[in-house]
């Protein structure tokens, strides 16, 4: 059985593998919105072509097994993105963004909780982490709601080019398989799945 699944469901949201045709919605609500991209590691997109290119890259990474990006849909409309990047064979890093009008409704913490459970179905994965800008309070709150723990502040660790060309401090959040089990955040009966070969 291969991992990851191309579609997933939460109580309110559906996640699916991106399509080239998502570029307009992604550009319109996410990658082209300077408020959404403020604390991200790339410059706000100014042209639709940049978002098209990004989706092509996301699909390439999916096929190579280096990162997996899902479109988050609410009522069948794209409203966000969730990404797992493979940092080490045992470790994934979360990346998220959500359309501004849907912020603060608990949507991305709902997605993240579901994705933590999904990742720990794979016996190879033992740790999921996220790095967020020192000033990104909504992201910190979202990660805490989803069950990740703050492991500390990393000095001059991350470059967020929409804010500065200089490295900025970041908060490191993480959850281990054991912590998720202890907090009953994941289903106790694991299937020994392995990620699909690139
Ligand atoms: C980070 C992000 C995905 C959170 O999504 P979300 O669905 O709004 O998250 P949730 O509603 O699950 O949780 C957000 C928390 O932040 C709080 N919050 C929302 N806006 C806030 C603000 N401007 N200032 C402080 N807290 C805020 C919410 O009340 C909630 O906290 P609570 O549990 O105390 O109520 C969304 O804000 C976003 O897309 N930001 C831009 C992209 C980004 O920064 N990504 C993270 C990179 S690490």
UniProtKB/TrEMBL annotation:
Domain N-acetyltransferase: 13-178
A Pfam family this chain is assigned to: Acetyltransf_3
Protein name (record): GNAT family N-acetyltransferase
Organism: Uliginosibacterium paludis
